[in-house]
Amino acid sequence: MPGAMSVRWALLVLLGQRACYGYQLKLELHRRLDGWDVNVGQVYNTLERLVRDGLIARAGESGAGQLLYRTTPRGEAELAQWWETACAPTAQGAAERLTKVALAVSLPGVDALAVLDGELAAVVAADSAAADGVDAAGPGTGGGPGASVAPSVLALARRAEHDARRSWLTGVRAGLVDGTLVADEWAVEQGRRGRPSASTGGDAAP
């Protein structure tokens, strides 16, 4: 399941494509990330932080009066760097990679193949390091009386994780190349939910 950092990047990605209001962003995340039901309060809290950091700004109102947000030039620069930088070989990095790949493939206008190739290269490098760790740990004899086999077991587990990530990324890349994975257009806006702006008589949104 994507984490808090993934929410930040996911919102920045969506706002890099078009101006949106909070509830609309929640709907798009749910649709593009396999039913991920991020709390709308978390969406607005993250929007507040992105505004504070200068990565997004208010961009007027929707037809129903909800506040819209859009990336700033600074936000677009950070977003471009994020697309180009492979995720870290950590649990948080794995969650972020899932978000990145799903959005790259499902959104129109993203160079998904470039994103996949960058992530694949990073996973292959990590896989090589994991293989070295297995070799260094030995065949699991523990190295003698009183030694633990745990290092070998854990090294094998890490290698299996890297192999699974590599297989997943390779499969996604193949789907892009053969056309079985095609970007989705944006959904038609649903409903009128969202925080109203002060000009509509409601409380001012962040």
TrEMBL record:
SUPFAM superfamilies, A to Z: Winged helix' DNA-binding domain
Stretches assigned to the Transcription regulator PadR N-terminal domain: 11-81
Highest taxon of source: Bacteria
One Pfam family in the UniProt entry: PadR
InterPro entries xrefs: Tscrpt_reg_PadR_N (IPR005149), WH-like_DNA-bd_sf (IPR036388), WH_DNA-bd_sf (IPR036390)
Protein name as catalogued: Transcriptional regulator, PadR family
Organism annotation: Mycetocola reblochoni REB411
Upper lineage: Bacteria, Bacillati, Actinomycetota, Actinomycetes, Micrococcales
